[in-house]
Amino acid sequence: MTAPASKTEGLVPLMLALSATTGLIDAVSVIGLGKVFTANMTGNIAFLGFAAAGTPGFYFAPMLTALGLFLVGAAIGGRSARMHQDRPLARWLLVSATIEAILLIAAAGFAIGYDIASLSPRPNLYAIIGLTALAMGYRNATVRSLKVPDLTTTVLTLTLTGLAADSAAGAGGNANWGRRVLAVVMIFAGAAVGAFLLLNWGLAIPLLVAAAIIFASSALCAVRVK
User: For the whole model, what pTM was predicted?
Assistant: First the structure.
């Protein structure tokens, strides 16, 4: 299912809020779980290359766990999108938000008693990696199906490329420059807030904050797009 063009603009605030949660999740995974991404798989592919070359500090198991569970989440998200093809958009948004929030809350549960410095206990480490990657895979598949222009909520390479290529310097018309800039700002802000929360109160708090933002913003958006 793709969101109707008439409703796409109404999804922009939600996509920006979800972008902020990507920053929170990136802070959790990169700072709290070692050298691994659970929202950005491009980074993991590069890290796997580093590990293959024997670079110290880069290990296959965490990144393969993240990559594998991300793909599982994306497959589930794709199936969910097709199941909601003929159903109200609001229902789809609420179902997706509930799934993401539950997975992140579960990850927060495993973060209790987890030690960032030693990355232990190891079962908790892999549980947090797996649950957050599953949530982000599901998210990416959902956002891909919604097709809101310039707002992927998880990666910024194409957003920055579009911002520059379509600017006056690139002889463009500055299309969607506002939402592109806001997408960058939101991921930056989410990462900064996530790092602050993690460094001061541990891993569980940024995960719970991300879950709350996802559910609250999706619920508000669902009311508007009915």
Answer: 0.94
